[in-house]
Write a structure and sequence with these properties.
Number of domains: 2
Strand content: over 45%
Structural class: mainly beta
CATH superfamily of the largest domain: Immunoglobulins
Radius of gyration: 19 Å
Number of helices: 1
Oligomer: single chain
Order of helices and strands: EEEHEEEEEEEEEEEEEEE
Helix content: under 10%
């Protein structure tokens, strides 16, 4: 009998700045600086008339601006028009994502809105860590005040971001693997029985009075 190879998951610890957008959205996405991202509008919006009747809006610290209207890039978005485009299904594509792109994106059709919150991470330094499938790993939450009720752990895989912990307890988004997740007294995230599905980006974020506060650790795990 030939012994089977142990499957390993490579955990890549990344020290980075994490710039978060509003959490009041239908969909939350997190991407890296320099990435290209497609923000998909609701499919029924497209079916009922095409992109000519779609408006894309962007809200950040500045007043809301129009990015796309009546089938073309709006003049208010002229400064970054070379990085913006809209696909046949009305998705908004942003090339070479930068920190200025953090914010709330709204796809609007005849008074109906679909909101997407886009957060951006800026990589500062890489550190490597390896774990075998089945191991237990602890991801520390650093540079924050250790009140776990103010801590949110986020997990991003395939451009989809879900909450793992919020207000000190497992979030409903993580219900399927709640038996493998826990928090320590210092708000570190513990993952038991690591599997390949755990590959992705983990971000520790502190919210004070509902507003984003300090950024803790962010981990990018890649399976191989």
């Amino acid at each position: 009998m030939i012994p089977s190879r142990e499957t390993q998951t490579s955990l890549l610890l990344i020290l980075m700045l994490y710039f978060t957008a509003s959490s009041d959205a239908d969909l939350r996405l997190m991407v890296r600086v320099g990435d290209e991202v497609a923000l998909a509008c609701r499919s029924d919006f497209y079916i009922r008339g095409g992109c000519e009747t779609i408006t894309w809006l962007f809200t950040s610290t500045n007043p809301t601006v129009k990015l796309f209207e009546t089938g073309q890039i709006h003049q208010e978005a002229a400064a970054k028009s070379d990085r913006l485009s809209v696909t046949a299904d009305c998705s908004l594509v942003i090339k070479k994502v930068s920190l200025e792109d953090v914010g709330l994106y709204t796809c609007r059709k005849q008074g109906s809105d679909f909101n997407i919150s886009l957060s951006v991470i800026h990589i500062l330094q890489y550190l490597h860590l390896k774990a075998r499938v089945g191991d237990e790993v602890t991801l520390p939450c650093e540079n924050i005040n250790h009140d776990c009720k103010t801590i949110t752990w986020l997990f991003t895989s395939k451009s989809q971001t879900v909450k793992l912990f919020e207000t000190g307890k497992i979030h409903q988004d993580a219900a399927a693997k709640s038996d493998r997740l826990s928090l320590t007294a210092d708000c570190s995230l513990v993952i038991k029985k690591v599997s390949l599905e755990d590959a992705g980006i983990y971000a520790c974020r502190q919210f004070i009075n509902g507003q984003p506060g300090s950024t803790g650790s962010v981990f990018d795990s890649q399976s191989w």
